[in-house]
Amino acid sequence: MAFACLPLAALAQGVPPAGAPVAVAEKPAPYDARLLRLSEILGSVHYLRTLCKDSTADTWRQSMQDLLNKEAKGEADRRARMTAAFNRGYRTFASVYTACTAPAVVADERYRAEGATLASEITARFGN
Fold first, then answer.
1. Distance from CA of residue 106 to its chain's centroid?
2. If 0-12 CB within 10 Å is exposed, 13-18 middle and 19+ buried, where does residue 59 land?
3. 7 part of a folded domain
4. I need a labelling partner for 61 at 20 to 30 A (CA). Which of 3, 28, 52, 91 fits?
5. What is the pLDDT of residues 32-61, one digit of tens each?
């Protein structure tokens, strides 16, 4: 009779039954922090370019979509983190700039420069 309780004890301890699918935890890439910062920059630049009515404004959102498709394909948690970073960058600048001003243009230039540097570093260090 004691053996009849064994399967229940295993379930109570969180041991999956034989043949059950096992969830695999996503292992963060060594460049994830940089990728999140790049995502945030893309969101910021997308907002600033849209605010200043730049004809390439949607390019930045599309760049983010391309980044998600390449770096987070099949990884829901990573995709969610990157999307949250993009949205955070967008919302941060939306809370500060409501018109295209000289400081907004300077911020755009600085963020694009930082983004270009990050992209180059990620590619040079971790690219294949």
1. 24
2. middle
3. no
4. 28
5. 899 999 999 999 999 999 999 988 888 899
Confirm whether 41 is domain-assigned. Answer: yes
Nearest to 41, CA basis, from 5, 77, 7, 90:
90
CA distance 46 to 60: 5
Enter the DSSP assignment of 55: T
Establish if 87 belongs to a structural domain. yes
Distances from the Cα of 62 to the Cαs of 20, 31, 45, 97, in angstroms?
A: 39, 21, 12, 22
Helices (H) and strands (E) in the chain, counts: 5, 0
Output the pTM of the full model: 0.75
Main-chain dihedrals φ then ψ at residue 28, nearest 5 degrees: -65, 140
Domain of residue 106 covers 32-126
Domain count, the chain: 1
The CA-based angle 86-88-93, given to 5 degrees, is 105
Q: Are 52 and 104 in contact (CB under 8 A)?
A: yes
**Backbone phi and psi for residue 56, each to the nearest 5 degrees, phi listed first:** -100, 15
Q: In this structure, what DSSP letter does residue 72 have?
A: S
DSSP state of 99: S
